[in-house]
Here is the input.
Amino acid sequence: MKLFDVYPINDIEPVKALGSKIWDEKGQEYLDLYGGHAVISVGHSHPYYVKRLTRQIKNLGFYSNSVRISLQEELADKLGKISGLKDYSVFLANSGAEANENALKLASFHTGRTKIVAFTKSFHGRTSAAVAVTDNPSIKAPINFAGHVQFVPFNDVEATKKAIDNETCAVIVEGIQGVGGIQVATEEFLKTIRTACDKTGAVFIHDSVQCGYGRSGKFFSYQYYKVKPDIVSVAKGMGNGFPVGGILISPKFQAKHGLLGTTFGGNHLACVAAISVLDIIKKEKLVENAANVGTYLLEQLSTFKELKDLRGKGLMIGIELEKSVSEIRNKLLFDDHIFTGVAGANTIRLLPSLALTKPDADKFLEAFSKYVK
Ligand SMILES: Cc1ncc(COP(=O)(O)O)c(C=O)c1O
Here is the structure.
């Protein structure tokens, strides 16, 4: 059987990794400033994470949500404390798309409405409701073009005020757009969404799948502004590579048996992965590290004259050039052995582990300065 060929791939096979380093099958070492697409939060193969997952699989790998899984309660407790959302509940899923799918469904159950307001350049995943609110027609099949979604320009306060009305079920927004090229939502924009949702009864969904879990230098990026969404979706960094996602749900929503559900969501291994990630983030002060090393990278990059734009917060950084970045990205990967990401044609996207050190940031800056002044 062949693989269904949907991914353009680089001809590199990583076989081992530790912290921010990766080795391929020939023993070549790489520096990882991409984190497997914002997934590696506490560093590859962190010893505490490996120890806890190994111990768990020796005891029990999986049982369904038909029995008590106290690891879920431990995860909820730790997540509530670290995120400042102690009075919220969590529903556990397996991916970012599934988290957003459930967020949108819950909003619709709650309001009885269908209209969704989403934003230009958004990316929320590839499942049915999530892709419908994603601003990319090329990844929507005919069944995904739902008439209930209105796209509004990102950060456009007036258009947002106009779009949110008494028929609106939910507004879904990324605090920092990832796929859209590291576009940071302004304080006025997020506060406008909050006020309009309060006025109309619409649900404010904050997609924190990429910008959450400390990546922005705060646990959630909206915490820079003191706005509070009704539902926050998480995934990616939550499991440091183990597939786990979820939604954090304000107390105003009523749970009912059977309302949401999944076979794998909240399984023992996923919970242990997610608990280990939170333990490491707290013990090693990784949110603070993301803020410090991210600020350092942004300060250093701001001295480069040839950049068209520099955007981001913490360790979620977009470096936009006047020209296509594909050649520079390939040179960084194949000559300097540094993984980076891209967004669109002209933006390099940095999404390293939250444990990235300043010396590793310097290695990137030195290599990058060979191509851009
Ligand atoms: C902001 C955002 N939301 C949702 C998703 C979808 O997550 P997943 O690929 O885990 O379904 C992504 C993935 O890149 C994302 O960046």
